[in-house]
Amino acid sequence: MGAKFKMTADVMADATKLYEQAQLKHQEVLDIIEAMSSSDSASSIGKIYSGSYTSSNSISMLPAEPKIFHGRDSELADILNLFIQGTPRIAILGAGGMGKTSLARTALHHEQIITKYQGNRFFVACDTASSKAELAGLIGAHLGMKPGKDLTQALLWHFTNAPPSLLILDNLETPWEPLESRKEVEEFLSLLTDITSLALVITMRGAERPAKVRWTRPFLLPLKPLAQDAARKMFIDIADDRHSMEEVDQVLHLTGNMPLSISLLAHLVDMEGCTEILSRWEREKTSLISEGYDKRSNLELSISLSLSSPRITSMPHSQELLALLSILPDGLSDVELKQANFQSRISLVAKLHCFVLL
């Protein structure tokens, strides 16, 4: 708590609208796929997805290794040590913008992982999947499988008979979070982890691991903001070292050392300079870095995705609580929260409301 990046009331108001727009886009994609599957083009699609189950015949293309990567050496070492022990099941957790995907991509391209899994590494972005069947379909597409209503059994057969493989499911919270699909998704993950030759890595927002999976110990702790030295190195890699270090630290103070925020502000500093960006921040706040088209280039969109999560929307008074916390100058620290020892969320909201009025 005590975060330096405040969530404004406008961001929270936009969360529902952004979620609805995402749902509409998702449905449009499904409609297009259904139309293609029922048309003459289905045969050509089948040729793309059919054949032997190798990445050379699939749509799978591994994402590039991050070129700017600082401050996660300890977490990377922990991941690699788990792979040395055997076939791990690892959950990379943390808030939006903490660099979970970058950490997973760095591990994916590490020499140790390449040597162990060679051509059997798969990285699947789960942003577009809203159910277990759609998640299975995405994985199947990366393996080169022919589209089907539910590829679960085909996937299990493939990985059971394939050489040792690594499957990374990025942003798994998208299909996992909805309560109506969570049970099926967790059962699917459980079936995948029954395969002794399949290593599984997931990235998810939050600090909760999906149930029904025996995650490899020791668990990775949720990612925290970068240390100051790593934050500076990341900033300089993007914006060069020609800026006053005092002003650089002022900019970093605005980011709370969150990798996404550092990246967005550093790119602006590279174009306009620290002084101008600090001045603009006083006028524009988070809207300064909210012109991008997705959660990796738009801070408000990243925050809104977290706010529209069922873990927030399904909890009574949660958004009211966050709105009150955003009014406080420095948030509410863990120590203050423990000392308050409030009996319920409602009483917490009431007490905070009184505090703000005072």
Automatic annotation (TrEMBL):
This is P-loop containing nucleoside triphosphate hydrolase protein. InterPro entries: nSTAND1, P-loop_NTPase. Pfam families: nSTAND1. Residues 65-267 form the Novel STAND NTPase domain. The keyword Transit peptide does not apply. GO terms for molecular function: hydrolase activity. Keywords: Hydrolase.
